[in-house]
Amino acid sequence: MTRVVVTGLGMVSAAGTGVPAAWSKLADGTTALNPISKFDGALYDRTVAGEANHLARTDGGDRCEQLLELAADELIADSGWDDALMVDAGVVLGTCQGSIARAEQIHRKYARRPQEAATDDDKARFAAYRPGAGTTWLAEHLGAGGPRATVGMVCVSSSVALCHAVDLVQRGACRRVVAGGFEEFSQFVFTGFHCIGATATGGLRPFDEERDGTVLGEGAVLMTLETLEDAQARGATIYAEIAGGGFAADAFHMTAPDPEGGGLERAIRQAFSEAGVGPADIDAISAHGTGTAFNDGMECKAFARIFKEVADADRMPPISGVKSVFGHTLGAAGALDATMSILALRDQLFPPTVALETSIQPTWDFVPGGSKPADRPIDVVLSTNSAFGGNNSALILRRVDAS
Amino acid sequence: MTRLFLTGAGAVTHAGLGLDALASAMGGEASFASETPIPDGPAHAVGRIGRLDDPDCASSYKRWGQLDTYSRYGFVAARLAMEDAGIDADTAGRDRIGVMLGTAFGCMEENQRFDRYGVAADGTLKGASPLLFKGTVDNAPAGWIAVAWKLKGPNATYVSGAGSGLEALWGAEGVLRKNRAPALLVGGVERIVDLHLLLREADPARHGATMSEGAGLVLVEREDSLTRRGGRARAELLGVARTRGTYADARAAALTQFGLEPESVSDRFHGLPEGGLKSTLGESHGAWGGIALCAALAYLNHDGSWEGRHHALVHAFGEGDEHFFAALKTVEE
Predict the structure, then answer these.
(1) C-alpha distance from residue A34 to each of A52, A366, B123 (Å)
(2) Domain range spanning residue A8?
(3) B297-314 pLDDT tens trace
(4) Beta bridge mates, A208
(5) Hey, which of A205, B24, B156, B322 has its CA 20 to 30 A from A296?
């Protein structure tokens, strides 16, 4: 099977523009969560979000395009891809709601004054709101002439997008792909999460006994993927191999996860099988860790079954929940978590779970506080995500020189 | 390489439910409705289904009433495909089946409703309802189908424009060849809202055709699974090609990939706006690929071949200048 590797990274998040800004915040154990600015949080009795507040919002501009453009700038510089390499590159992105903010005003206007909702501006805004519009925009912005695909699976969107991108390369549909995810912070999604009781009263505290919900964020996270052979031939920096991926359904409930984590376990075992690894090969875990009671509890049950033998042997891999730093970026979350896992492989650091005080699994190491230097080589990382609709995904990221 | 078969199909279109309705529509006149989305505004033709009530689903699934219209299209198509394939609660390994769907516009109707009621004009949240919110995800149909039938296999939703249904089939082919599931429900779902008619008049993705809504799902099954349960194959799926350029160039490249001679293949199930099925079935965007697969099977039911040929190409436009071609082959008894 063709091996597919990551040769470039680019991102924007609440921590700032650029991968170094994000990694620095995470490694230091400092949260980037900040006061809600896009709307009045008092309506919800909530104050905190993971907005990219360092970027001014432009009147009439598309927030998703703004985020994607900045992430793409860094990605291209980091990967070394030139126009010749880009010309047949694919683009595969994941998003939950795309440019939903473009539609919010039209929806409300149409509901109240339908005869006024057909201006040329409305037509242009509505066209940019289609779920796949961000992918089209990025492909045209980059001059990427290969296959384009978008995954719409809420919080697993970009991790499944990475699986799809790997598939495109391995099955010969193209030789290289820009893949990742994006999400803008919107009142629409915030209202939805709030009405199901999923928003936190304060910070985001994954795997903490006192956790009470998630904090929504925003961002764009991109990677360049290509074959190992191509990357080596052009002398590229190779961050990691995407060695395996899996996705599976809970088939339990539309908004609540299977409390036993059955779908997540199936996704992880698929990814293990594809990568040819087992629980004992995993050196670190990046968990979804939304800070909700249901999600974090479900994840622990799945991990407990899968890693029982290594845990019994006192070799349970450290688990990181990075959303306490960036917020939950929904459609970008899978790619963001994978990027932090890749940097853990590069720098041999276990990323922390910031704001953790009382762990729900006291015998496991969630790396509370700040990052921790590896006490053994970090060669293989498992990164997991779960979503509404009962979806689960898993990625296996591996250091190339370790395989 | 394992062989893959289409073993069940379910279609929901403005022509009705099931393959027979689809077959009738293929041989008849276009019957589009005329709607005026704004008072005194221009009329728009549309292949409309509307709110779908299905007594079989209503009686067999207690949460049927919670399903939004977009999800209902996919859900009913799934019921028809599962029944057509002979999959029921007693089928061994049913829980390993997965669902992979495509849609261009997804949950836009529920988004519109949630925006209308979620944050009310007076700025309060009195209308923000968890029941409404659960429909505001593009993967709602795939989720409902998995929950209702306890299908725990791979589950994915692509929102890649008009090619989404065949994008899902392309992804499903990879999943099945890796033996990640014995079978997958695959296809596309689309729900058209008034705002589409109002604001997408000039959208190039319409390709000049009349907009329509609906769903088309097929059960794609590995040969070992089909043999094990003693099921019936309707057609063989040779594969899905993604090629580029003009339709003619992309088709030629696809035929080369499949090793097929042009004269041995029926092109009746193409996604071009004129001279094909879209003149009667409309442009159903992300649902098109799935509906076209169902149309190919409906045609095969009726005639035993595709215009005397034993191969058919089902085509959909992808994003950019990409095309999807699914190659089907008749099955010898």
Answers:
(1) 9, 23, 23
(2) 4-402
(3) 999 998 899 999 999 999
(4) A359
(5) B156
Write down all domains in chain B, each with its CATH number in brackets.
1-333 (3.40.47.10)
Please give the C-alpha separations between residue A290 and each of A96, A187, A255, A363, B164, in angstroms, as whole numbers. 15, 19, 14, 20, 29
Q: Which of A186, A254, A255 to mutate to test the interface with B (most CBs of B within 10 A)?
A: A254
Measure the CA–CA gap between A148 and B162, rounded to whole angstroms.
12
Chain segment A157-180, per-residue pLDDT in tens: 999 999 999 999 999 999 999 999
Residues of B in contact with A97 (CB under 8 A): 111, 136
Instruction: Please count the CA atoms within 13 angstroms of the CA of B26 that sit on its side-chain side.
Output: 22
Long-range contacts of residues A54-60, Cβ cutoff 8 Å, at least 24 apart: A54/A16, A54/A17, A55/A12, A55/A17
β pairing state of B33-35 and B44-47: antiparallel
For the entire predicted model, the pTM comes to 0.97
Coil/strand/helix, residue A369: coil
Q: Within a 10 A sphere around the Cβ of A294, how many other Cβ atoms?
A: 16
Q: Which residues pair with A225 in a beta bridge?
A: A6, A177
ipTM attached to this prediction: 0.97
User: Residue B152: which of A108, A251, A388 has the nearest Cβ?
Assistant: A251
Characterise A90 by phi-psi region: left (phi > 0), alpha (psi -120 to 50), beta (else). beta
Q: How many domains does chain A have?
A: 1
CATH number of the domain encompassing residue A79: 3.40.47.10
